[in-house]
Amino acid sequence: MTVRAAILGTGSALPRQRVANAELAARIDTSDEWIVERTGIRFRHIAGEGETTSTLATDAARAALEAAGIAAAEIDLIVLATATPDQTFPASATRVQAALGIADCVAFDVAAVCSGFLYAVSVADAMIRAGSARHALVIGAETFSRILDWEDRTTCVLFGDGAGAIVLGATTSDGDAPRGILATRLHADGRHNDLLYVDGGPSTTGTVGKVRMKGREVFRHAVVNLASVMDEALGAAGLTPADVDWVVPHQANARILDATAKKLGLSPDKVVVTVDQHANTSAASVPLALDTAVRDGRIKAGDLVVLEAMGGGFTWGAAVLRF
Q1: Cα distances (Å, whole numbers) of residue 286 to 115, 125, 161, 255
Q2: What distance in Å separates the CA atoms of residue 285 and residue 46, rounded to the nearest whole number?
């Protein structure tokens, strides 16, 4: 029998403060109409006092554990995707581990920006298939608001904070429609560093830095790369876009979502969209959107789901799974 990693439960967490476009327009040179037309974003959540990447990650993890019916003590692997850790070290995953009361398990962070959750899923899937773990918490969590230049209207309106999590468990289901992760594909091309990056870091400036982006170029690469990697992952699973029930994409920009779906010949009705409510939450966006669609009943047991994302670096990836 083939061992696969299956999603047993999903969860998410958002900061208490919800900020509408109109509130940003009162502070910077922008408008609700400008933001919605170019991005589809209407709201975002901003972390406040006492809310950090690890606290949001912990809340999302608890929700996923409850949905899975799994006790924290049964988790033997935590992979946390983030570009905004609580500290330079140790890994924020270890803070989640401690907060959940887990005395000992493998726990580490993955840094691949907006693609981080896909990278984390791929790592956890490989470790479960190899027998190195039985139950894994895979989390995407960010407090991107703390690395934004709030005077740069081209970037500060795009991002928000939040966390999403899944519990993966080993399964040996076979048959015509086996449950679990069927294929993952990951890529990176560091030649595009200057198109989307943070202008700081411990070994360069000694500061955290701020997000910088060339939006037009990022858009162009995103549509091509996302369509390509989704096709690649589906092909690896022996499937086509016609087999897909739901696509859960990185929530960067509504126009990117529309263009990618069109390039693959997918109906927009099959694409989960939460960017209007959450903005771009980087590594958190895919699990946040996934949890939203699971809890509102759209994604059901047996559905074929594709997760995909692209982020700074560039990094990009996709996963095909049977829910």
Answers
A1: 9, 16, 13, 17
A2: 14
Q: On the CB side of 236, how many CA atoms lie within 13 Å of its CA?
A: 17
Strands 161-171 and 77-81, by their bridges, are unpaired
pLDDT of residue 263: 84
Annotated catalytic residue within 21, 45, 105, 250 = 250
Q: What share of the chain is helix, strand, coil (3-state, %, to 5)?
A: 40, 25, 35
Out of 114, 156, 225, 253, the active site residue is: 114
Nearest CA to 83 among 57, 110, 61, 106? Answer: 110
For residue 92, how far is the Cα from the chain centroid? 16
Residue pair 212/146 in contact by the 8 Å Cβ criterion: no
Q: Is 45 a catalytic residue?
A: no
Q: Looking at residue 103, what DSSP letter applies? A: S
One-letter amino acid at 273 equals V
Could you confirm whether 192 is annotated as catalytic?
A: no
221 in active site = no
Counting Cβ atoms within 10 Å, is residue 215 exposed (0-12), middle (13-18) or buried (19+)?
A: middle
pLDDT tens, 48-101? 999 999 999 999 999 999 999 999 999 999 999 999 999 999 999 999 999 999
Can you say how many angstroms the Cα of residue 237 is from the centroid of all Cα atoms in its chain?
A: 21
DSSP secondary-structure letter at 55? H
Which alpha helices (DSSP H) does 211-322 contain, by range?
A: 215-236, 254-264, 275-278, 285-295
Structure confidence at residue 176 (pLDDT): 73
